[in-house]
Amino acid sequence: MQVQLNTDKHVSGALGLQERAEQVLAQELKHVAERVTRVEVHLNDVNSNKSGDTDKRCQLEARMKGLDPISVEHRAPSVDQALTGAAKQLGRALGNQQGKVEASTRGRESIRRMDPEASE
Q1: Domain 2-105 has CATH 3.30.160.100
Q2: Which residues are paired to 103 by β-bridges?
Q3: CA–CA separation, 75 vs 98, rounded Å?
Q4: Percent of all residues in the chain with a pLDDT value above 70, rounded to a whole number
Q5: pLDDT tens readout for residues 78-106
């Protein structure tokens, strides 16, 4: 899984932040990690220099093999809390999406595995 980190000018995009993002995402997405190809992380400070209760924003966009991308957003007082909250949301959303795909294909035979003589 590739993790692409993007920050605004008010959030330091230090190497430690990249490693932290990879660590948090690996933990929260371990149940779907084999299907996730890329996660884009967008971190920014909504109020710039002003402080606020939820002025740090983390938006995550995940791309899974063969499915449309999923995007989630979480706001929190710190960058780490915003990242962790968004990662948990993304984990739930991807798990739900994978469950729906599995449920829709469960019990059906694949056209690739059907016996050509059986359809005649």
Answers
A1: yes
A2: none
A3: 25
A4: 81
A5: 899 999 999 999 999 998 887 777 776 66
Cα distances (Å, whole numbers) of residue 116 to 77, 106, 111, 112, 119? 60, 21, 9, 10, 6
**Strands of 1-120, DSSP E:** 2-7, 36-45, 56-64, 70-76
29: tokens are 């997405």
pLDDT tens, position by position, 67-77 = 889 999 999 99
Tally of CB atoms within 10 A around 33 = 13
| Distance from C-alpha of 98 to C-alpha of 3, rounded to nearest angstrom | 20
Tokens encoding 40? 């884009």
What pLDDT shows up at residue 100?
74
